């Protein structure tokens, strides 16, 4: 006897996981379009923006701190930071407190690229999420706790 698939949802449009999947894919398309003129991938943008934010509000982050902030894999973070450094958007310097760690700093060119990309990303976000209210954002934040 074979079990038949069963779902508690009345259809895919009622499944929160499936809806989140579809929304994520559509939002990622919007982000790729917003970032294309800046020659940045979404992960490059997130790591560049996180580096800038942490550097301006705390201290220049180590790659470990940056990965923790962005929720990215440390090895992948290192590879992306290397690409951003090759483009001259960030500098990596030894941490004066820990010779094994590198501190990441956004360069003037990186700030210029980030400023333009951030405007486009925030505009795209505003347009994409125009139909949802602050409760939606609060609900998303609760899912990350």
From TrEMBL:
Q: Which molecular function GO terms apply here?
A: DNA binding; DNA-binding transcription factor activity
Return the InterPro entries for the record.
HTH_MarR-typ, MarR/SlyA-like, WH-like_DNA-bd_sf, WH_DNA-bd_sf
Q: Which residues form the HTH marR-type domain?
A: 13-145
Could you confirm whether the keyword Transcription appears in this record?
A: yes
Coiled coil regions in record: none
Alphabetic keyword roster = DNA-binding, Transcription, Transcription regulation
**Gene Ontology BP terms:** response to stress
Q: What is this protein called?
A: DNA-binding MarR family transcriptional regulator
